[in-house]
Design a protein that fits this description.
With about 350 residues, the chain is an alpha/beta fold. Helices cover about 40% and strands about 15% of the residues. It has a seven-stranded parallel β-sheet, with helices on both faces.
Amino acid sequence: MKVGISLLTLVPGVVGGSETYARELTRALARVGELEYEAFVPAIAPDAADGLPTRVVREYGASSGMLGRATAMSRAWLTPGRLRRTMQLESLDAVHYPLSVTIPPPGERPPAAVTVHDLQHELYPEFFSRAELAYRRVLYKQAVTSSRIVITISEHAREALLRTYGIDPDRVVAIPLGIDHQRLTPREEPRDAFLLYPANPWRHKNHDRLYEAFALVRRERPELRLVLTGTGHAAALPDGVENRGRVPFDELVALYRTASALVFPSLYEGFGLPPLEAMACGCPVATSAATSLPEVCGDAAEYFDPLSPADMARAIAAVVDDPARYTQRGIARARLFTWEATARAHEDVYRRLVS
């Protein structure tokens, strides 16, 4: 049985958690997968399917810009024959499109699965321009209706899909993500007086309310700092806040291991990897009680209302003042999520596609 994995719409450094999922899934399939695979990657990300047999599809015309991405997908959808022949889709038993920003080329063969990571644009349409909102609504609907099975990354995302599109529940499968337990480990290192928030300043990441909460916390703890990672932050930040920019993963792990706590005030997550990554490193976590985050973090985090800076400040103080209460529960919680388990669950879906 041969399965194709299409990563043609992957844009390095742009699609965040979706890129992590796509890359880690292919690596895990290479380690524990029992089926035969071929990955299709764009010229701008030739290493995207590390570990699997790979074909670079230059005919796709991949681009890092929004307009270029839309043009490439539109061309693939309107003239699918050329792309289908290039990818030799008819030779496959099944094909998977792991990135939400994908429309499978029309055709009954091979049967397709698509991963839809979230439906943020339906819950928070105000976070998107009119053009991007229209683009997402068309794209996601086409992806869902063109696939035999839809994979989501949390039960919250699955329920949102069922509500939005009214599709057969048997067609939608929730598969949790994993984390890299080889690299994400606790260390006996002293923790420094800073909070960590690894996120680009997208509107749903809720930085402004975090700054308000941080100012409240600093009234009692003036030594505390707030460390941000990610690109696009303003040059002028509030007192005590610093931006490290986009950091290598090893540096992020070092921050997890030395931060007083991770604070994660996001308004919307399809899954939410940073809290789990922090837990695996023994870092206490204060997180938003929104969308998928309680499902992911279980009883190992301190939750707060992401719309209330005061409640956020309360939760931050709780984990900073009593870190031991959260550390061991966090480590145990993180152990439940592995990329190997994620890969095996995907193989079950691929077998269902064929059967």
